[in-house]
Write a structure and sequence with these properties.
This protein is of the alpha+beta class and 360 residues long. It is 25% helix and 48% strand. The chain has a 17-stranded antiparallel sheet that branches.
Length: 360
């Protein structure tokens, strides 16, 4: 009996020492990675502690603020990117030996700072609220790799005038981000694939469902960096390929491809093709709900039938992004906002009538 207890104590002590050694090595690794910032970046925080002993090592940073000054800017203070989060945690565990799990706790803010020496105001680019964003990053920093991210709920708030569609509300978001710092001219420096169960557009009072998007930034890293941070002038968009964007709005299946071709951060320029399938039943639903009169629905159906003569079930429309404004031909897409709102109100009224009929 004593021998068995002694063996158990020795085994437990050995496991304890191994776990403690792994925890110590992981804690040192996390602290070293947190202190190793990219060139031109500095991090500030109110507190940083390591906990989780002995099962996992977790670096917990409160009120983190990262300030990055691109090296290609005309002056050291000409342009800065600032990211701030209420809390950031990073942990490693022996059951997940090749990845670091990072949690970004909202609210989070991304800002750009232009010409600080002239005292210009700092414009806030994005503010994010909602559930924490969970990321799985590779344990070692490599020239090429990928990260997995997800969050149940995210509310993205834009500054006034930055988005004609208003704020965004995303539910059940997940995806992968890829990078290749040694990309050639035929490859992509970065790409991202994302899925969201619902995408609410508050300015239009409408919701897209089953959203999927695949986006890539082509070309070598040096070219991309020079296009984003030119030696003179404001920061700009690089070339961005929208390889695929699909969503469902009520009975309509939407698909879009295209390219962003530069422009300042808040005023991008690009060209896209929007494909709309199953549009005939949609018009009939709008007529039945009263959003369109019978005459309006018939006239619109005749016009669209002429446009889609070669592919009757598939309506294709060119979209232009000019100076930050999305246009359908010369018509700003924001002008269609009443259509989305009317369709939403009609759907709500139809649902309410069905509910009352069932109740009676």
């Amino acid at each position: 009996m004593k021998k068995a207890l002694l063996s158990f104590a020795v085994g437990a002590g050995g496991c304890f020492l191994v776990l403690s050694g792994y925890w110590w090595a992981s804690a040192q690794y996390l602290q070293k990675q947190a202190d190793t910032m990219p060139l031109g970046c500095q991090t500030h925080y109110t507190s940083r502690v390591v906990n989780g002993w002995p099962w996992y090592a977790q670096l917990d940073t409160q009120n983190m603020r990262m300030v990055c000054t691109p090296l290609l800017a005309a002056r050291s203070s000409a342009f800065q990117i600032i990211y701030a989060a209420t809390r950031v945690t990073a942990n490693t565990a022996f059951w997940r030996p090749f990845f670091v799990h990072v949690r970004l706790v909202s609210p989070m803010v991304m800002e750009t700072l232009h010409n600080a020496q002239e005292g210009e105001e700092t414009p806030v680019v994005l503010r994010m609220e909602g559930d924490p964003i969970e990321l799985d990053l590779p344990l070692s920093r490599r020239a090429a790799g990928h990260a997995v991210f997800q969050t149940p709920f995210l509310h993205v708030l834009f500054p006034v005038g930055a988005s004609h569609m208003g704020d965004m509300v995303l539910q059940n978001v997940r995806g992968k981000a890829f990078w290749n710092m040694q990309a050639t001219q035929e490859q992509s420096t970065a790409s991202i694939f994302v899925k969201a169960q619902r995408w609410g557009i508050t300015g239009w009072q409408t919701v897209l469902e089953d959203v999927q998007a695949a986006v890539a930034i082509p070309g070598p890293t040096t070219n991309v960096r020079e296009s984003i941070f030119p030696s003179n002038g404001a920061a700009a968009w690089p070339d961005v390929l929208v390889q695929r964007f699909t969503a469902r709005w009520r009975d309509l299946n939407l698909k879009m491809t295209g390219q962003v071709r530069g422009g300042e951060l808040l005023h991008p320029t690009g060209d896209f093709w929007l494909s709309v399938a199953n549009w005939q039943p949609f018009l009939e639903n709008l007529r039945r709900e009263g959003t369109l009169s019978a005459q309006e629905a018939a006239g619109m159906a005749t016009m669209l039938a002429r446009v889609t003569r070669e592919q009757p079930d598939n309506l294709q429309m060119p979209l232009m992004l000019r100076n930050g404004t999305m246009q359908l031909g010369t018509l700003p897409v924001s002008a269609l906002q009443p259509v989305f709102q009317a369709a939403r109100h009609a759907a709500q009224e139809t649902g309410a009538q069905v509910g009352r009929a069932r109740a009676n």
